[in-house]
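Appendix B. Worked example

We walk through a single record from start to finish. Start with the input: the chain for GATOR2 complex protein WDR24, Octodon degus, length 790.
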Amino acid sequence: MEKMSRVTTALGGNALTGRTMHCHLDAPANAISVCRDAAQVVVAGRSIFKIFAIEEEQFVEKLNLRVGRKPSLNLSCADVVWHQMDENLLATAATNGVVVTWNLGRPSRNKQDQLFTEHKRTVNKVCFHPTEAHVLLSGSQDGFMKCFDLRRKDSVSTFSGQSESVRDVQFSIRDYFTFASTFENGNVQLWDIRRPDRCERMFTAHNGPVFCCDWHPEDRGWLATGGRDKMVKVWDMTTHRAKEMHCVQTIASVARVKWRPECRHHLATCSMMVDHNIYVWDVRRPFVPAAMFEEHRDVTTGIAWRHPHDPSFLLSGSKDSTLCQHLFRDASQPVERANPEGLCYGLFGDLAFAAKESLVAAESGRKPYTGDRRHPIFFKRKLDPAEPFSGLASSALNVFEIEPGGGSMNWFVDTAERYALAGRPLAELCDHNAKVARELGRNQVAQTWTMLRIIYCSPGLVPSANLNHSVGKGSSCGLPLMNSFNLKDMAPGLGSETRLDRSKGDTRSDTVLLDSSATLITNEDNEETEGSDVPTDYLLGDVEGEEDELYPLDPEHAHPEEPEYVLPQEAFPLRHEIVDTPSGPEHLQDKADSPHVSGNEADAASLVPVDSSFSLLSISHALYDSRLPPDFFSVLVCDMLRFYAEQGDVQMAVSVLIVLGERVRKDIDEQTQEHWYTSYIDLLQRFRLWNVSNEVVKLSTSQAVSCLNQASTTLHVNCSHCKRPMSTRGWVCDRCHRCASMCAVCHHVVKGLFVWCQGCSHGGHLQHIMKWLEGSSHCPAGCGHLCEYS
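Next comes the structure step. The output line below is what the pipeline stores for this chain.
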């Protein structure tokens, strides 16, 4: 932590020397203050009140002001200040509401001088007048500020800020009678100590409590404020109304702010929570700190520049019970580690990329961007050479355009509006959503819905058309999944066959997959196989296509010249795939020539075997195996959902999550589900799909998501007669005692959906108002207001 660089600064004959160093305290520090000669620092907290000498190599404890056997709340300090005119005078703000002054010149061991007990709650801040030795100002949690004259026992004036809490008070360095105060409600007030009855000026500085303020040591009227909204703002108080000059955006609530000596635009800040570092900002460059000190391991509670004319040394105290001296030369500079590239999407999908000119190689084929295709996209400000950071870096801007209409999100809107997520059986939901995706050209999504149906639904209920779309390529019609072929007798010579023999034609390899549970049945009467629920008008065979598939035989399209089929004996009992390389095609002839078919079968198709002893093969089971339980595929389905989410398609992830419900929800952690839901709802609301968004919220089982549509459900309306706000929950105005929900068209009470104009407060039934506004733009109540319905 300690760095060996050393700096010596000459200040009017006195030299400040030192290095980055720290010392351990006995307890956490709440505030620090530096002596006028920059040789000592006082550290105060709930359990510590000590003075340390700042030497060249280390801190040396000089005095412990917590004396006495019994601990006193008067020593529990929230703030401490060292007078800049009298090196023996200190003041502390106690947590019990007491303001205590300390005289280091007293010969006794106890240095306590005076106690002021006029505040009722914790005193947050004390401040000495910069030029008046006996004037002390305090600000308390009770909302009052008090000015004390140390030559008297009581306060000389009390200032009421009309707020709950005063967080900081600071005397102006240039204006003798002026001081600034910051409040819990976000206001900043300027007071004249001669007029305690009212403030001179008040304005809202921050969105939330203002924790600190500091007057600029050189520029008269510049006031820096920091608040819980993570901003530091610089105000010009010399104008008639406070003018915001600069705004610095930090990453956490700002607890302390101090202008850097001899540097007009530099100020130091520390955070109240989360962030432990100390930052030095150039207010002209508000997004990147000029320097950063990272020595503390807990929240920094107090910062002070060692000397009002030396910008090199910064002192700090922290809740990690350390006191540090930071050398500005040893600070890290975040600008050196900042990412020099920028990336942003435009409104129409164009991608802009900015980087250093040295990193962007010139390409001969790249056209200069004119920006006239969809004017305007970029507004480039002309650089001013006088600006302080204009010469630090230069960048080149590249714009990657998309084709007009190429970035359309119509598919997202159509999918969101047409998807069915609830209210039907699972099989119908999957079929409907697959159909929607297929019509929109999203074949992968459609295939996913089809596979989900196969996994989670009973195979016997799956329509053949849907599965055929998944199994067969190039199929022009829906094909059933079950077929029946009968075998009468098996020829003795069939056992010697090892493959399908073809008498002529092209030779190609075939793959035959039969289920192990398929049954081979011999039917003497050559009728339809018992137990088969579909007619035997389909068979397995070769087609002139890319792959084998089921196809129907039509007597009108039969080809007698086709080669005959010879089925090997071992093709039926095997449990695995058999790959055969036929020697030639087989013949198909009219079914009327076969003596082994029934009358119904003869009307559809026929098979002419090589041997008359053959009959049809019977396969009465589905072509897929349905014995695996749906839970077997849970891991695969979860991986599929994560795949879609990682690809950016949270619509698919959320839709499947809602449709499958508890089948898959239990296997995905709650935080991931909540992230998917909120991302999808945000997209729906961006496209103004409010109804779909509300449906998704209602169907969600995540408690954090399901409560989204329960917030901000109250509408504050005015009575359409007396124009007064409706103060009760009913529809009867408690002032004019008339019903506020009267239809302006039919003059009846609206008991259902009510629509009203936000401009004149008149309304009525939705259908009546819509029909009225189709022919007239004036209010139907006759008030003359031009109403609009969109």
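Two observations about the output. Residues 338-361+395-401 form one domain. The chain is about 15% helix and 25% strand.
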